[in-house]
Design a protein that fits this description.
- There is one protein chain.
- The chain is α+β, with helices and mostly antiparallel strands.
- It has two domains: 35-133, Serine-tRNA synthetase, tRNA binding domain (Helix Hairpins, Orthogonal Bundle); 148-453, Bira Bifunctional Protein, Domain 2 (BirA Bifunctional Protein, domain 2).
- Helices cover 36% and strands 18% of the residues.
- The chain binds one RNA strand through residues 1-5, 13, 21-22, 24-32, 35-36, 69, 72-73, 75-77, 79-80, 82-83, 85-91, 93-94, 99, 102-107, 109-110, 274, 276, 399, 401-402, 404, 406.
Length: 457
RNA sequence: GGAGAGGUGGCCGAGUCGGCUGAAGGCAACCGCCUGCUAAGCGGUUGUACGGGUAAAACCGUACCGAGGGUUCGAAUCCCUCCCUCUCCGCCA
């Protein structure tokens, strides 16, 4: 790469783990995430944290903020004095007059100023770290609750089928049909990986094509194919960093992380940009593989392809005006649901309660598909609005036509859908007594007309 | 990997031997004027953040010319480090 200077090791130097591209505030020098909002709404933020069952406390932050402002006033007063004197010196010298007296005095002021300035970064660093760790404030319509069990069901579609024979799970179905091979995947990579073969691989590819086609041709999304690795600044923008590095795979010795969702590269397409208002809502869809470390989920869903280190997903991302975001979330969720309807898979939609809400989200609908072998619904899509949370971090703005003012956009995203889990749902819901699986009508054109997956001969 | 060029405001683009440059000039946008309509033309306005101030404004201050550091009374301008982009050569899907 041009401009790089080899170090002693002959390679590039990247930030060590946990050191990220510094948060760069909006054009400012020492701006904060939403300093004013937090300062002016301490009670509201604390209430939001309580609802989220978070242990974070604003205590200390308020004092830190006061201290910062006191010092800032001091520093800025000194700078003003210095600037005025410097201008005076310039004038004197242009008039060929002596300025050594003033210069001497400024020399001492300048060194005192340096001392005063030196105290600020530490305070601001602490405040910044804190602000980056505050989760988004839940939307007013989000029900309060402690966890998963408190998520209310919004609606249910379809009826779980009944089987006149003992149902098999997708692992057995896949093994019997020789289309899923977890043993060899483990040999190649390890646990939580899958190798699809024959109709299994075709099914996965068909689903990706089907989903993308519906979203681009019928729902008006622009298809994008982004990088599958992204840098730390991008992850900071969408909120996966700095708090959740342990969930990510990092490429050793680099600033690159494997994306855990297309949300990261796609939302960051417009990072640091001011968008023309008429381009909103911006709707994009992308297929990507997703990579997740799944640290802390040991023993959970170890069997099968429900929880993998790598899985395919078709993602929906929207960038819109604040006034549009509530409605756009409903539409986005409906767009994801449409896929399940066309595939004929029974599902329900739940609203995540405050205690179950993700870090960056203000409101989330989970779409859960029926899994016969488990006798319950499992998440297959998660549709969220982040309000201006990601936009603030990633500096995604738009210019209001009338006032000419820039405003933070709202960002949303949702799976449309998780492809691996869709494969699971299809295999299990459409299995037949003889071990074969019916291919949903909508998918057949994408599978060369194949109507049923049977044993290979 | 080797060699070179460059990163300035919404965009393009000047910045001389460091000082009066938040930053010329142009475009775009907005507000007036002019004009059968449109186009052209004329005049004016238009960055962001933080802090102070205000009922809210006005207003005042500070910072920001890729990022970080240094020199200096003073840096877009000088020095160092890093990042990124572009061009050519090499290698490669």
């Amino acid at each position: 790469m041009a401009g790089d200077t080899p170090d002693a090791g002959g390679g590039h130097t990247f930030p060590p783990s946990r050191v990220y591209t510094r948060y760069v505030p909006l054009k400012g020098d020492h701006g904060m995430l939403d300093l004013k909002f937090v300062r002016d709404n301490v009670a509201a933020v604390e209430e939001a944290l309580r609802k989220r069952r978070s242990t974070l406390s604003l205590e200390g932050f308020v004092a830190l903020d006061r201290e910062r402002r006191e010092r800032l006033v001091l520093v800025e007063r000194m700078r003003a004095e210095r600037n005025a004197a410097s201008e005076e010196i310039g004038r004197l010298r242009r008039e060929k007059k002596d300025a050594t007296d003033l210069m001497e005095r400024m020399k001492s002021l300048s060194s005192r100023l340096k001392g005063a300035e030196a105290e600020l970064p530490a305070i601001e660093g602490k405040m910044e770290e804190f602000l980056l760790s505050i989760p988004n404030v839940p939307a007013p319509s989000v029900p309060e609750g402690a966890g998963e069990e408190d998520n209310p069901t919004v609606r249910t579609w379809g009826t779980p089928g009944t089987f006149s024979f003992p149902v098999k799970d997708h692992v057995d179905i896949g093994a019997d049909l020789d289309i899923l091979d977890f043993d060899r995947a483990a040999k190649i990579a390890g646990g939580r990986f899958c190798l699809s073969k024959g109709a299994g691989a075709l099914l996965e590819r068909a689903l990706i094509g089907f989903m993308l086609d519906v979203h681009t041709r019928e729902h008006g999304y622009l298809e994008v194919l982004p990088p599958f690795l992204a840098n730390s600044a991008s992850f900071l923008g969408t909120g996966q960093l700095p708090k959740f590095e342990e969930d990510l795979f990092r490429v050793a010795g680099t600033d690159y992380f494997l994306i855990p969702t297309a949300e990261v590269p796609v939302t960051n397409i417009v990072r640091d940009e001011i968008l023309p208002v008429e381009s909103l809502p911006l709707k994009m869809t992308a297929w990507t593989p997703c990579f997740r470390a799944e640290a802390g989920s040991y023993g959970k869903d170890t069997r099968g392809m429900i929880r993998q280190h790598q899985f395919n997903k078709v993602e929906l991302v929207k960038i819109c005006r604040p006034e549009q975001s509530a409605e756009e979330l409903e539409k986005l969720t409906a767009d994801a649901e449409e896929i399940l309807k066309r595939l004929g898979l029974p599902y329900r939609v739940v609203t995540l309660c405050t205690g179950d809400l993700g870090f960056s989200a203000a409101k989330t609908y989970d779409i859960e598909v029926w899994i016969p072998s488990q006798g319950r619904y499992r998440e297959i899509s998660s549709c969220s609005t982040f309000t201006d949370f990601q936009a603030r971090r990633a500096k995604i703005r738009f210019r209001e036509g009338a006032s000419g003012k820039t405003r933070l956009a709202h960002t949303l995203n949702g799976s449309g859908l998780a492809v691996g889990r869709t494969v699971v749902a299809i295999l299990e819901n459409f299995q037949r007594e003889d071990g074969s699986v019916d291919v949903p009508e909508a998918l057949r054109p994408y599978m060369g007309g194949m109507a049923r997956i049977g044993k290979r001969c």
